[in-house]
Amino acid sequence: xxxxxxxxxxxxxxxxxxxxxxxxxxxxxxxxxxxxxxxxxxxxxxxxxxxxxxxxxxxxxxxxxxxxxxxxxxxxxxxxxxxxxxxxxxxxxxxxxxxxxxxxxxxxxxxxxxxxxxxxxxxxxxxxxxxxxxxxxxxxxxxxxxxxxxxxxxxxxxxxxxxxxxxxxxxxxxxxxxxxxxxxxxxxxxxxxxxxxxxxxxxxxxxxxxxxxxxxxxxxxxxxxxxxxxxxxxxxxxxxxxxxxxxxxxxxxxxxxxxxxxxxxxxxxxxxxxxxxxxxxxxxxxxxxxxxxxxxxxxxxxxxxxxxxxxxxxxxxxxxxxxxxxxxxxxxxxxxxxxxxxxxxxxxxxxxxxxxxxxxxxxxxxxxxx
Amino acid sequence: xxxxxxxxxxxxxxxxxxxxxxxxxxxxxxxxxxxxxxxxxxxxxxxxxxxxxxxxxxxxxxxxxxxxxxxxxxxxxxxxxxxxxxxxxxxxxxxxxxxxxxxxxxxxxxxxxxxxxxxxxxxxxxxxxxxxxxxxxxxxxxxxxxxxxxxxxxxxxxxxxxxxxxxxxxxxxxxxxxxxxxxxxxxxxxxxxxxxxxxxxxxxxxxxxxxxxxxxxxxxxxxxxxxxxxxxxxxxxxxxxxxxxxxxxxxxxxxxxxxxxxxxxxxxxxxxxxxxxxxxxxxxxxxxxxxxxxxxxxxxxxxxxxxxxxxxxxxxxxxxxxxxxxxxxxxxxxxxxxxxxxxxxxxxxxxxxxxxxxxxxxxxxxxxxxxxxxxxxxxxxxxxxxxxxxxxxxxxxxxxxxxxxxxxxxxxxxxxxxxxxxxxxxxxxxxxxxxxxxxxxxxxxxxxxxxxxxxxxxxxxxxxxxxxxxxxxxxxxxxxxxxxxxxxxxxxxxxxxxxxxxxxxxxxxxxxxxxxxxxxxxxxxxxxxxxxxxxxxxxxxxxxxxxxxxxxxxxxxxxxxxxxxxxxxxxxxxxxxxxxxxxxxxxxxxxxxxxxxxxxxxxxxxxxxxxxxxxxxxxxxxxxxxxxxxxxxxxxxxxxxxxxxxxxxxxxxxxxxxxxxxxxxxxx
Lengths: 370, 668
Description:
With 370 residues, chain A is mainly alpha-helical. Chain A is built from 14 helices and four strands. In chain A, strand 1, helix 3 and strand 2 form a beta-alpha-beta unit. Chain B has a six-stranded mixed sheet, with helices on both faces. In chain B, strands 19-20-21-17-22-23 form a six-stranded mixed sheet, with helices on both faces. Chain B has a four-stranded antiparallel sheet with strand order 2-1-4-5, with helices on one face.
């Protein structure tokens, strides 16, 4: 135990001796947090559209006014000489709406009026969003004008209600995920570097010669970087709450416990990587690629895991961020409590122990491997 | 981080009184401390250790000497318990090396210090790893730092200590557990002569207190201070014995020959069949032969017929280095320096053209004045040696001279230019070999050579030839695809040297080129340096090995950023006041301790098993005086005579004198 503390103290001294690294370790996550929080947004606003009104009636103008009133769309006119199709192709506009002649008269006679929405679906996600907005605007237009909604829609309509995030604020979805991704990168990277440095500078030989065991050595390292990770966690979560207006929904204790285990798991991964690769440059690449890309792509951060092919989904099961993102979303959005996060906590514990065990297997003889 | 080692006058006083060991051990020299049986170690196809048997007694200083790549480091790693042998066993006090780790102190070649931790933090960590209590770490740490005169630097980062200080700190860290066995793998590489000597005095003290010490060193004057030495070559131990036994084993006699033109005399005498060996040492040639009288006659005759004036010929006992070189030549064959493929015509220059010039050169790093007004001139074809203790400012000076760092003030001349030293035109004409290897560890040797040939603009047509030469010079022909990182230090130095001169520079800067290089290879280095100078290359070289500094045409001695002495080796030595008396005693170490206590300690030093004392009074009365003093302490003086002052004596005297005058090195 004394040796674990000695090891930990030495690591912390080294960490805090290097002011630049400490600053980077604390500031870079914040920058990432702000960047991701703002850059990644699924809400679609201010999309340029062109409306071709062939009816030129009071009703058609009302319809256009309804569209113009939505924040989603911005009506533009086409530069001279540019046709509708060309404007779409040149990405001058993302949608073209054609209001046919007789629009008003059709509506007055109780007939179905057809309005054509041509939407650029290169980006399928945005196109879907635009379609949703178009439908919503049209419905409300009908309702306001006392029209039979069936004038534009089929008779059966599903009444949808959005739970948990009724405003569909992307922040509530992305914010917690960002916290998990940022924490998945920096602590393991620093831990791995410190480990690789011992090999590169040959100081590891002195450690081998002493009678510290591999277990004590690894635990000391892990604990030191756990402390660093904890500081980073407090900083990132509090700024996240400030920036994204995140609030705990219900009991925060599952989240806090889950976070401790997640941090341990991330640091353990770094220690394992540093043990396996004894060269700092390679370590940086390996850890940043694995931690960052996997946490980004295969954690459900942006792309729901249910959409990922099942073979790749197996890989996702060993990505710690996946579990923690679920835990954070539960804490800040769903509020499901212990029962909802327990499987994730077990998985993280298992992964952390597995990482440390792997590192221990490599180190356990405390001798030069040749 | 709280201060671990607080220095209060009270603590210091107490520590001074209790400089003895915790448990005064009754020393049984006969007890076996280390027993190695049939030890073998293979790395893949390469067998580094091929059956080693050794027995080392308790309290012994045991030297493991051998050329680079002999397998010494492998033996150390196995003894330290950090590597498994392939077969065979290494037992320390009857237990496996692995089990006795806690009673082993191991100093690796790289010192294994945490550069970003302070002196105190390094010691504390090492102590705590071994499970020592804080009080104990503080007490012992204080004692060793005091002993090494480092107690002022507890808060300094290890990375900012000079080489000599790092080495002492590493030793203090290894000693803090008070190990029974101390393993030192080339501990004095890159360490200046003054620190080196202090280091060995400490070792002698530790051994007298019962510690078993195994040490590898490329410096054979150090090996003379071991109780026993083993000569290792190619993974096998060839000879074991006391230095005296090894010296006499060959049955050869040694003649010291001082003549006018040493390099020509060496070439001539080497061709004489009846002489066993001819070696150059500083300002003399050592001629080895079975019979001293006939050898002297032959030498005189040979030199006379060549018109070389002989100043002096003296018979003496062979040194360990004589023996070592002779044995290695027998085992290995002569290290032939392959002829350098010269492809460029050397430009005709006015005689006495200045290749490297500095006038009132200063360098400040913030508040620290590193170089204080240096004036020097090196002509084409001249070898200039820059000597000085660690931290004296040699490397900073070299870096300014070749334009790597900007001087704070002063005028510089380099390769006929007054400025623009970083232009490719000037760089093409200079070669620079830095103190730390400038090779890429993760490239193979050939890739490294190819890279340097490329950056220095060696024409593609010459590259293959030049690279082949560099490989042959390094003794690595046919092994070009080895990873550079896997080479022992001495070999890397050879490759780096080869890489630095492939483009045929006309000005060459060599910063400690031979540090950690074995005696045979060191010879090849100097042969090459001399050849380059003969072709008109200006060479500026630094070294801690003062015997080789005698081969320089001119020397500059730096202390604390100033050039305090300059001139030919003879001039520098002549400027030293006092006479040197060499004593051959029954107990060299005790004699040294005794005399150091009685007179200024810089006047007394151990050279191998001989004692050098610098006295100001008349020689005969001084000898009588010394004999009486030693006899009173029960030490027998076998032989005492006046000896020529060596460059090393001068160096130590000058540095000590500067210290007393208050000129202090960077870290003091």
